[in-house]
Design goal:
Layout lengths: L4 E5 L3 H13 L3 E5 L2 H11 L4 E5 L7 H9 L6 E5 L4 H10 L3 E4 L4 H13 L12 E2 L4 E4 L4 E4 L2 E4 L2 H12 L4 E3 H8 L7 H15 L9 E4 L3 E4 L12
Parallel strand pairs: 1-2, 1-3, 3-4, 4-5
Antiparallel strand pairs: 6-7, 7-8, 8-9, 10-12, 11-12
Helix pairs in contact: 6-8
């Protein structure tokens, strides 16, 4: 089994070294950066992480801004690391971006446990080990650059389309219910199924040779959608 990839962004060098050492010893692959821009560069070159640990106080921006950048690529799970216990900030972050918050100082075993809990809620996505995900001979996906390659032709995706496709791909061959898609793509907005259908139609027009007879994204009427193809790199732990 491939190691889960953790992206750590924190400008406290001593803290980052301790976290990296602990999580490495627990079997994770950790890439650590002191600020957002080099972390984003890393993702664009090396591919998506399985989870990101983001400090709210970064040299060039607030952690929410970095989270927004990551979320514009795909549905990357995020745990915010913060020195403040401000409940308003925590509630806002949980509604908009994060799976969890952890307030410094904390026992590194607690952080490890929180990472385990978040990852356990996510379907297998071992395919994230590569920047360009090859689905089949016709389709490849580059989430970090919001694009797909269809029959050798690059096609840009909107952030909404990238997130939808990421959720579907992460659940490849399984039905994703409409309510789950809406919750993952628009976590802090009141969105209805009509909006989801419009965005899904636009995504299909980019993916499919015939969007009226889709090959990759099938509608499960009254329930949700299913991505039909399993990337070769994806191992289904539930199979």
């Amino acid at each position: 089994m491939k190691k889960s990839k953790i992206l750590l962004i924190d400008n406290d060098a001593g803290f980052s070294a301790s976290v990296t050492e602990h999580l490495h010893s627990a079997g994770y692959d950790v890439a650590s950066f002191p600020d957002g821009p080099p972390a984003i560069d890393h993702v664009q070159q090396q591919g998506l992480p399985h989870i990101a640990l983001v400090n709210l106080s970064l040299p060039s921006s607030h952690g929410f801004e970095l989270a927004n950048q990551l979320k514009s690529m795909a549905d990357v799970p995020i745990i915010f690391v913060t020195s403040t216990g401000d409940k308003d900030v925590i509630v806002d972050g949980l509604k908009r971006y994060a799976e969890d918050f952890i307030v410094k100082p904390f026992d590194l075993r607690e952080l490890e446990a929180r990472v385990q809990v978040v990852l356990a809620r996510m379907p297998s996505f071992d395919y994230a080990s590569e920047p360009m995900i090859r689905v089949d001979n016709n389709l490849s996906i580059d989430f970090a650059h919001n694009r797909i390659v269809v029959a050798g032709k690059p096609v840009g995706l909107t952030p909404t389309e990238s997130i939808m496709l990421h959720v579907l791909l992460r659940n490849a061959t399984r039905v994703v219910e409409n309510r789950m898609l809406i919750a993952r793509v628009w976590p802090s907005e009141e969105v209805y199924e009509d909006t989801l259908r419009v965005h899904m139609h636009r995504l299909r027009r980019k993916l499919e040779a015939d969007s009226h007879h889709p090959h990759y994204i099938r509608t499960e009427r009254g329930v949700g959608y299913r991505f039909t193809q399993r990337p070769p790199e994806l191992h289904d732990d539930n199979a």
